[in-house]
From TrEMBL:
UniProt-listed GO biological process terms: benzoate catabolic process
Descriptive protein name: 4-hydroxybenzoate 3-monooxygenase
EC top class, as a word: oxidoreductase
EC number(s) stated in the UniProt entry for this protein: 1.14.13.2
Key words of the record: FAD, Flavoprotein
Keyword Flavoprotein found: yes
Gene coding for it: pobA
SUPFAM superfamilies: FAD-linked reductases, C-terminal domain (SSF54373), FAD/NAD(P)-binding domain (SSF51905)
Domain FAD-binding: 2-342
Pfam families: FAD_binding_3 (PF01494)
Keyword Flavoprotein attached: yes
Length: 393
């Protein structure tokens, strides 16, 4: 079997790249380890930067998002019993779109199916070969059969635990990592949101976040120790803890209900350099992870996709083959800035075990300073709505 671009992974990165390339007439094959239902069963973030919104429209998959997504002009920071609004639109002229990653993935899967482009779900033993040659290939098994896919390029869109990054010989990549000493316990519920916009709350007992998927579906989080087990968190215990971390009037208006999903996610910052090797490009979570504070994970995957897509267009339409070597350098500029913002938001808003009273006062002063100054609020806002995509030239 032959294609132009072999895409490993049918998460948002792989599907979005596949859709953009399909629209441009560039053939792709997607290989995904799991079933489509399994991929759709994962609950992930739900805030889209304008750059990603525009990219989804460009890919021809923006219609349902534009109908059902919620445009938010701001968000709130809660601390010391008060709520302070960051006016994204007023400060930057830009907004964010509330639309779940699950829905983005579903729209992309529907578009791929309609396009007739080839996708192999339940593809096992995916292995990458001859990355340094002009004709790399991928082998995998499907329904008990071993198959070979020849291609020009491979896009490793297979997430943090995928095979693509691990296929690069040792010594080539440099890894940068920070593991945080806590996780987020998340609950999805069919309840009306406690506020019109997202509320990020810093509290002595730990961080909390009030988010939403729609006017009738909410997603709430509380910071928990890494040793915590989800079985130990009844719905009642979760709601009680969330309320304690919110300003009193916010807690009083919180509507609780049975959880539809409950899970704990660890927090990590991670980047590999470079994000490519020979004919393989690493895209999205395969190359970098951010902690969820600031909602940058999915958006950063989208900016990688945009960069790779524009490079491949120049390669195939204008014969600019040398541009491919610049993928990593172009992506990493934006990746590190998003890493910085996610790390900074995480550092400022969470309770770190074993930090002294002085450090806690510094955290609080930093928050107070940033929300109290227009320069500070603008800095938060321009990062939250998303820094500009790096030009490909
Ligand atoms: N072979 C084939 N597919 C694989 C393999 C493999 N060896 N390993 C992993 N995959 C698949 C996974 O099953 C998953 O569906 O690759 C896909 C990777 O998808 P994601 O983890 O969602 O990563 P990505 O598409 O880069 O999405 C960006 O942003 O909000 C964050 O972490 C969140 O998933 C989100 C990410
Ligand atoms: C979410 O809705 O799941 C969400 C929103 C904002 C974040 C992280 C997660 O920063």
């Amino acid at each position: 079997m032959k294609t132009r671009v072999a895409i490993i992974g049918a998460g948002p990165s792989g599907l979005l790249l596949g859709q953009l390339l399909h629209k441009a007439g560039i053939d792709t094959v997607i290989l995904e380890r799991q079933s489509a239902d399994h991929v759709l069963g994962r609950i992930r973030a739900g805030v889209l930067e304008q750059g990603m919104v525009e990219l989804l429209r460009e890919a021809g998959v923006g219609a349902r998002m534009d109908r059902e997504g919620l445009v938010h002009d701001g968000f709130e920071l809660a601390f010391d019993g008060r709520r302070e609004r960051i006016d994204l639109k007023g400060l930057t002229g830009r907004t964010v779109m509330i639309y779940g990653q699950t829905e983005v993935t579903r729209d992309l899967m529907d578009a791929r199916r309609a396009s007739g482009a080839r996708t192999f779900y339940n593809a096992a033993e995916v292995a990458l070969h001859d990355l340094q040659s002009d004709r790399p290939h991928v082998t995998f098994t499907h329904n008990g059969e071993t198959l070979r896919l020849d291609c020009d390029y491979i896009a490793g869109c297979d997430g943090f635990h995928g095979v693509a990054r691990r296929s690069i010989p040792t010594g080539v990549l440099r890894e940068f990592e920070r593991v945080y000493p806590f996780g987020w316990l998340g609950v999805l519920a069919d309840t009306p949101p406690v506020a019109e916009e997202l509320v990020y709350a810093a509290h002595e007992r730990g961080f909390a976040l009030c988010s939403m998927r729609s006017p009738t579906r909410t997603r709430y989080y509380v910071q928990v120790g890494i040793e915590e087990r989800v079985e130990d968190w009844s719905d009642a215990r979760f709601w009680e803890e969330l309320k304690r971390r919110l300003p009193a009037d916010t807690a009083a208006s919180l509507v609780t209900g049975p959880s539809l999903e409950k899970s704990i996610a660890p927090l990590r910052s991670f980047v590999v350099e470079p994000m490519q090797h020979g004919r393989l490009f690493l895209v999205g979570d395969a190359a970098h992870i951010v902690p969820p504070t600031g909602a940058k994970g999915l958006n950063l995957a989208a900016s990688d996709v945009s960069t790779l897509y524009r490079i491949l267009l120049a390669v195939y339409r204008e014969g600019r083959h040398a541009l491919a070597a610049r993928y990593s350098e172009i992506c990493l500029k934006r990746v590190w800035k998003a890493e910085r913002f996610s790390w900074w938001m995480t550092s400022m808003l969470h309770r770190f075990p074993d930090t002294d009273a002085f450090s806690r006062r510094m955290q609080r002063a930093e928050l107070d300073y940033f929300v109290g100054s227009e320069a500070g609020r603008t800095s938060i806002a321009e990062n939250y709505v998303g820094l500009p995509y790096e030009p490909v030239e």
